[in-house]
Design goal:
By secondary structure, this protein is of the alpha/beta class. Helices cover 43% and strands 16% of the residues. The radius of gyration is 22 Å and the shape is globular. The protein starts with 5 loop residues before the first helix and ends in a 5-residue tail after the last helix. The mean pLDDT is 96. Residues 40-383 form the Aminotransferase class I/classII large domain.
C-alpha cells in the first residue's frame, strides 16, 4: 500500500539539500543575555527580548500574584465569561500609553492581524499592502476576501500609483504596513503614507510588533515616532517582544475597537489570555511609563554593535533599528555560519533566516540586540562573529 505521506519525505529532503530546512533548538533556561540552548550555555543574540523584560523580577512577581488570585486560566473566551478585570485594566493602560481612545488585548500579534482585517474589509473592498509585510498581515488579507494590491517596499510613489489605478473600483480601502520590518530592520515612511491615505480616504493600519518598546518616546512605538498619535486609524502590536510576555494589542478609535469586539473571530472564538500573562504585561507597561532608561540602553547597545560589525566588514543591510541582519546571500552559507557560531567556545545563539521568510539570495543571520547585553557581551559577540566570518571567507 502506498504511503499517503511519502511526498513529505521528498519535500523535506529538498529543503535539506537547499539549506532551507528549519532546525528548531530547545531552550533550557529563562530568556536573557545568556541562555541554555540544546543543553549548552550560549550568548543570546536571537530572541526578541529587546528590553530584557522577559525575566524581569517585577514581571515575574506580578505574574505570580495574579496566578494566586485568579488561577491558572480564565477557562472561557472573552465574549462569554473570560474577560477579567485585569484584561480591561491592561487595555485602558495600553490606550493611554499609545494616546488613543481604546485598545483590545488578544492572544497574539498574529491573532490581532487576523482579527482586524476581515472585520473591516471584505469582498467588495481593496487592500494596499507593502511587499515585505509580515506573514500575519498576508494571512489576514487572504481571510478578508478583499482584493489585494501589493505596492513596492516602502515606496510611497508606488502606493500612490496603485491607489489611483484602482480609484472608484471598491467600496472601502485599507492600506497596511509594518512599522519596523522584522527581517531588515528598516522603518516604514509612516508620515507620507498617512498623508497619502488621508488624501484618498483610505483606512490606515500599521503593525508595530518590532516598534513597540523600541522607537518613540519611552518605546511608545512607530506612530509616536512620527508624532501621529491618534491619527493613524489602527495600531497593531505585540506584547511578546519588547514587553517580554505574550499577547497582541489592537489600538485606535473607540468606535472601531467596539466593532472589532463584535466581529473579530480570534477574539470571539479563542480562549482569553491568562491572568498571569496579563498582569506581567501590565507590569511591563508600568516600567516603560516610568522612564526611557531601558530604551536608551537598547539603542546605546545597538549603535555600538552595528558600528563594530561595519568596522569588521559585515554587511548589515538597511536596518535603522536594533534588528541587525548580517547579510550572507545563500541559505546554505547562513546555516553553516549559524552552526559555527553556536558550536564555538563560547557559543553564540543566532539563527539563520532564509527563503521563504526572506527572498531567495538574501539569506542572513538576524542579530537581535537587547538592553540586557553588557558591553562585555557585545565585545565577545563581535569577536565571535569576526572569527567565523574569516573562517568562512565572508570578511577578510
Amino acid at each position: 500500500m502506498t504511503d499517503k505521506f511519502s511526498w513529505i519525505e521528498d519535500e523535506l529532503r529538498t529543503l535539506q539539500e537547499a539549506g532551507l530546512r528549519t532546525t528548531i533548538r530547545t531552550i533550557g533556561s529563562a530568556c536573557g543575555a545568556w541562555m541554555v540552548v540544546d543543553g549548552k550555555k550560549v550568548l543570546n543574540f536571537c530572541t526578541n527580548n529587546y528590553l530584557g523584560l522577559a525575566n524581569h523580577p517585577r514581571l515575574k512577581s506580578a505574574a505570580q500574584a495574579a496566578l494566586e488570585k485568579w488561577g491558572a486560566g480564565p477557562a472561557a473566551v472573552r465574549s462569554i465569561a473570560g474577560t477579567l478585570e485585569l484584561h480591561r485594566e491592561l487595555e485602558t493602560r495600553l490606550a493611554a500609553f499609545k494616546e488613543v481612545e481604546d485598545a483590545l488585548y488578544v492572544q497574539s500579534g498574529f491573532c490581532a492581524n487576523q482579527a482586524v482585517i476581515p472585520a473591516l474589509v471584505g469582498k467588495e473592498d481593496i487592500i494596499f499592502t507593502d511587499r515585505l509585510n509580515h506573514a500575519s498581515i498576508i494571512d489576514g488579507c487572504r481571510l478578508s476576501s478583499a482584493e489585494i494590491v501589493v505596492y513596492e517596499h516602502c515606496d510611497v510613489e508606488d502606493a500612490e500609483r496603485a491607489i489611483k489605478a484602482h480609484k472608484g473600483k471598491y467600496r472601502r480601502a485599507m492600506l497596511i504596513t509594518d512599522g519596523v520590518f522584522s527581517m531588515d530592520g528598516d522603518i516604514a515612511p509612516l508620515d507620507r503614507l498617512h498623508a497619502l491615505c488621508e488624501q484618498h480616504g483610505i483606512i490606515t493600519m500599521v503593525d508595530d510588533a518590532h516598534g513597540e518598546g523600541v522607537v518613540g518616546r519611552s518605546g511608545r512605538g512607530i506612530v509616536d515616532h512620527f508624532r501621529l498619535n491618534g491619527k493613524f486609524d489602527l495600531e497593531i502590536g505585540t506584547l511578546s517582544k519588547a514587553f517580554g510576555v505574550v499577547g497582541g494589542v489592537i489600538a485606535g478609535r473607540k468606535l472601531v475597537i467596539d466593532w472589532i469586539r463584535q466581529k473579530a473571530r480570534p477574539f470571539l472564538f479563542s480562549s482569553a489570555v491568562t491572568a498571569a500573562d496579563t498582569a506581567a504585561c501590565l507590569a511591563a507597561v508600568e516600567l516603560l511609563e516610568q522612564g526611557s532608561e531601558l530604551v536608551d540602553k537598547l539603542w546605546e547597545n545597538t549603535r555600538y554593535f552595528k558600528e563594530g560589525m561595519r568596522r569588521a566588514g559585515f554587511d548589515t543591510g538597511p536596518s535603522a533599528t536594533p534588528i541587525t541582519p548580517v547579510m550572507l546571500g545563500e541559505a546554505s552559507l547562513a546555516q553553516q555560519f549559524s552552526r559555527k557560531l553556536f558550536d564555538g567556545e563560547p557559543g553564540l545563539f543566532a539563527m539563520p533566516i532564509g527563503f521563504p521568510t526572506v527572498p531567495q539570495g538574501k539569506a542572513r543571520i538576524r542579530v537581535m540586540i537587547s538592553a540586557a547585553h553588557s558591553r562585555e557581551d557585545l565585545d565577545l559577540g563581535l569577536e565571535i562573529f569576526a572569527k567565523v566570518g574569516k573562517e568562512l571567507g565572508v570578511i577578510s
